[in-house]
Amino acid sequence: MAHNRLSRLVTLTKIIVFYYHPDLNALHEELKPFGLTILAFPSNQFGKQEPGKKHEILPALKYVRPGDVNGQNEHPVYTLLKVSYFGDSFGNVYGRLFWEPMKVNDIKWNFEKFLVGPDGGLHRYYYSFYIYPI
């Protein structure tokens, strides 16, 4: 039953911290037969924690497209996802967020996740401070 549910979902995961990259590669390979795909978008917009360039990040994490998740240069995938989710507050962000213009529905910190169906519809959003079992 859980495998059927997984086969209908695509997980888009934005990651920042380097040591998680190999684990996501392994998880992607393990769940690929069930139709789950993990895509990661390392970004240096949160506390400047991912300063690596594309050629430095790609050897550690196979399924990534480094870039911005917010602001003028945000990746189009995030533009589409954020149309479906509207946050209500940024909280205390002084000196930690690095993009303009800031919008209330922007990604707010590292490791926020989206579950997306094969039709492109957003099924669920996970804020980075909470981990929910699938």
Automatic annotation (TrEMBL):
Pfam families: GSHPx. It comes from the Eukaryota. GO terms for molecular function: glutathione peroxidase activity. InterPro entries: Glutathione_peroxidase (IPR000889), GPX_CS (IPR029760), Thioredoxin-like_sf (IPR036249). Keywords: Oxidoreductase, Peroxidase. GO terms for biological process: response to oxidative stress. Belongs to the glutathione peroxidase family. This is Glutathione peroxidase.
